[in-house]
Amino acid sequence: MNRNLASIVAGTAVPGAPGGRITSTNPARTSQIVADVALGDAGTFAAAARAARQAQQAWADVPAPVRGRAIAHIGRVVEANAEALARLVTREIGKPYAEALGEVREIADTCDFFLGEGRRLYGQTVPSEMPDKQLFTFRNPVGVVGVITAGNFPVAVPSWYLVPALVCGNAVVWKPADYSPACAAALFELFVAGGGLPDGVLNLVLADGEATFAGLERALDEGHIDKVGFTGSSAVGSRIGELTGRHLQSACLELGGKNPMVVTDSAELDLAVEAALFSGFGTAGQRCTSLGTVIVHESVHADFLARFDKATRQAAVGDPFADVVFGPMLDEKFAARFEDYLGWIQPHHRVLGSSATGRITAARPRDGFVGDPEAGIFYHPTIVDGLRADDAIFGSETFGPLVGVMPYRHLDEAIALANAPGYGLSASIYTRQPAEVFAFRRGVSAGMVSVNNSTSGAEAHLPFGGNGKSGNGSRQSGQWVLDQFTRWQSMNWDYSGRLQKAQLDVAELTPDESFRLGD
Ligand code: UN1
Question: Cα 505 to chain center, whole Å?
Fold first, then answer.
């Protein structure tokens, strides 16, 4: 079914196509159109922020437990539509169907966590230093939240923003990736219908990147955006951080990763290989948590590499509705960028993992490919061994099915290599030695550390986020994200009937500090 989509502001589809028209196609079968899309422009984004501003106070006035009920209903309606939504994810961005179902599950998990938050959103009562005075803290919504998301997790990652933002009493303008508009429109409908959300509480803006940036700038100038949540590249994240910083705001930034996996000499190699395959090539290596470089102890380097090469050669690649490890690239623009990354391979590298590198075609076939490679945007999985610390492939995220491998001798050296690219999202270690686990945890710069587990597949209720080029230290998910979508307000209440001055009118006890116990 082909869909006609437009932005939705204050409950109404935006007429015309001020930002032009695009089509969204199936990357596994590029002749198949998934949606015709009328794009909005900067004005659409600014109008959506105005509509959200108008709707926000009434939404904040809805008692938090009732907002929590809305989240509960959204979770149930997402579950009831799980297969349809997962099928759409697979059709629009080519994520294998089993993974797409997992992605939908992550929305329900997020709703399950936050539905109870409507009944918590705890503040504190705090003792005062003076009598007949009481201190309190309250969580207030920040106001209007602008959410800008990538399309590699077109429904789960947006829910990480939308669910807590809404339960905390904020109104939202959501701008999804321009290559996953049909998934976005479906999720938007599930939220609005399932949650019974009043018009304007959640608004959808379909626009390209530049129009979004201009619209965000305008909305910030007009004072209609109070917080930005952004998931995407480090380059765009730093532009958004700069723009919001000028407005004295700190955005919630979830950016790229160059995620290392350290395989020590005590590692169970087959487990490490399975994890490298899943996190290196799952979603065709297009997760922010995808494995970047395997840093493997020199004594097991050759053995690990041989096993990893074998497993990668045997991995099923192709039709994402079949049982495959990975399907197509998300969109042509990611394929074009991936071609650039392949150009970073140097003569000193050894390339393994498939029968060829680059796009899978009749001339460059992949053994065991499932389906017709030329119908879509499919790439060979590529292992690049022999990385050096000054290689571009070592230092930068290479979004796509490419994993680097390099040896190390001492754990300190492995930790330094893990941190060297300057990202800090997810890092993993395979070892049987507790001392190595804790040395790694302490030394590695990542916000998320896995022990005997891959770099991807974070659970939806632990703090998610990174440091360095991976983000500005903000964390999503679980109780930690509440600090992104609320502001603490403190209140003191003096009922003594006089002006008691803090720090001045405070009773002092008189200790005897020279006191010593007798023998
Ligand atoms: C992302 O790629 O932006 O941990 C998020 C994982 C997923 C989320 C990835 N649960 O791999």
Answer: 50
